[in-house]
Amino acid sequence: MFGSKFFSASPLAKTKAVGKGTTVSLPEDLGPELAFIGRSNVGKSSLINALTGRKKLAVTSKTPGATRGIHFFTFGEGKQQLTLVDLPGYGFAKLPKHLAEKLSARVSYYLTHRPKLQAVYVLIDARRGLKEIDVDLIDYLEEQGLKAPVVLTKCDKVKPNPLQKMVKEMEAQNFEVFTSAALAGDGLNELRADIFRRAEDAK
Ligand SMILES: Nc1nc2c(ncn2[C@@H]2O[C@H](COP(=O)(O)OP(=O)(O)OP(=O)(O)O)[C@@H](O)[C@H]2O)c(=O)[nH]1
Ligand SMILES: [Mg+2]
Known about the structure:
Helices cover 32% and strands 20% of the residues. It is of the alpha/beta class. It has a seven-stranded mixed beta sheet with strand order 1-3-4-2-5-6-7, with helices on both faces. Helix 5 links the parallel strand 5 (117-125) and strand 6 (150-153). It starts with 5 loop residues before the first helix and ends with a helix. 36% of the residues are buried.
């Protein structure tokens, strides 16, 4: 149902969550939602731009902290609608001790108040690999009943063999793993197919 030209051909609406902490107000039903989470600077906003073929849809920056709010990008209409959600990054400078500290209150609120949230892609810098903090985050998401596939980002910065080794090790631990290079375009078709499949499942 969602064809290969879906993102480029569909009308687009942008919405932002309003407010702070647990008083945050979220938009009404925007169809099936797929969110992108991960440390600041990991490449969440760049990936959304690359997936949708729209260079300046989500704000990106070399400096961590580019995305401050919760941004909803809704494509399509009616039954053929889906929303990509760009979340602010967490914990760049130092890793706080407890998970609750690294996810801001409004992100936690968002994650636990969206009936049509189909998956939260957990982005990991391929140069850095999966750390304990990331595993804690995935555990937290799964405890909320959410699907949490991993997306390795910046794969253009690592050599193919170590990358494949990392993917195999993660898969052996039962993580679902995608690889991506937002700027070079690698892995985007596989991710789009996964997004469309999960959006279809919501119906
Ligand atoms: N080499 C390379 N650089 C990338 C890739 N994806 C993103 N970047 C760069 O990484 C930096 C951060 O990208 P963003 O997309 O702003 O990261 P973010 O996760 O949205 O960051 P916050 O909004 O601060 O949480 C930018 O300088 C991007 O150009 C990639 O696949 N390869
Ligand atoms: Mg961002």
